[in-house]
Amino acid sequence: MRYTTFGRTGLRVSELVLGAMTFGEQGGVGAPLEECRRILDAYAEAGGNVVDTAINYRGGASEEILGELLAGRRDRFVVASKYSVTRDAADPNGGGNHRKNLRLSLETSLCRLRTDHLDIYWVHIWDPHTPVEETMRALDDAVTAGKVLYVGVSDTPAWVVSRGNTLAEWRGWTPFAGLQVPYSLVNRDAERELLPMAESYGLAVTAWSPLGGGVLSGKYTRGGTGRLGPTAIGADDLRVARVVDEVAAELGATPAQVALAWTRRRAGVLPMIGARTVDQLRDNLGCTTVTLPPELADRLAASTGFTAGFPSDFIAQTRPWVLGAAAVS
After folding, report:
1. Where are the domains of the chain?
2. Catalytic position from the list 43, 57, 201, 220
3. Angstrom distances, CA of residue 162 to CA of 150, 195, 197, 203, 252
4. pLDDT tens across 272-320, in order?
5. pTM of the full predicted structure?
6. Of the residues 59, 100, 142, 281, which has the maximum number of CB atoms within 10 A of its CB?
7. Domain NADP-dependent oxidoreductase: where (predicted)?
């Protein structure tokens, strides 16, 4: 396992992030405690050091299980959690990105995780009803109090993230050091605005659902079943999955390893791997040994039919008209 820094910070993070959304059996198919222990141990043995959870995962069981499993070795891991999703649907202030929910959510997560601080605290999703300046200042207060070391933002428009970091820069607050987005061969939307924005600000990117909800794992092209029903998978996604299967066969790798290797090719992107069994995790970890030749990477990208759309495509098309002779170089 190789390491990089978390955005423009000195925090060292592994190239694969372990997602703990599967920790616990509440609310659907997940992993029981002892399987979670095996998953975490296998990840750590491979050199992984970042574990990502959230206050709402498995109704709170994910944080509780992770807290138990980290006992005696918490400081060897970069522990990340998120807030935004409501703690109590009957409470008008039970969710959102405002100061009150941040404080109560943070205290809840710290208690469950059995720690006095989080290494990374993520804003889970944009709350358009809370001014971003309130969120940034509240996050900075949590950092000042020593309860949070670094902050990041997930599932939020690029212009909101940009405004938040500009405010932080101007006012001396703690900026977002990381961005979390869905990113895979079947969901490349982040390439339009979010990934270029992250590159400009030097943000680390953790990519959730890098296997497209399991579509790219190979199970559906083999006629298998999973949490996605047959009608939930579009023909375009299945077409991409078949190309992944073909490339995997050529390389002697598994489809999941090829899909993860493609996501890892993008500079600054750290795939988040989630598993319900230790065997699934070990298969995913194998992506670090897969090297995609440029021609195969291009073949995978071409299978998606992705275009950046306006204004990116328009700007590229009009470059010679705008720059004249300078466009040549």
Report:
1. 3-328
2. 57
3. 17, 12, 8, 11, 42
4. 999 999 999 999 999 999 999 999 999 999 999 999 999 999 999 999 9
5. 0.94
6. 281
7. 15-300
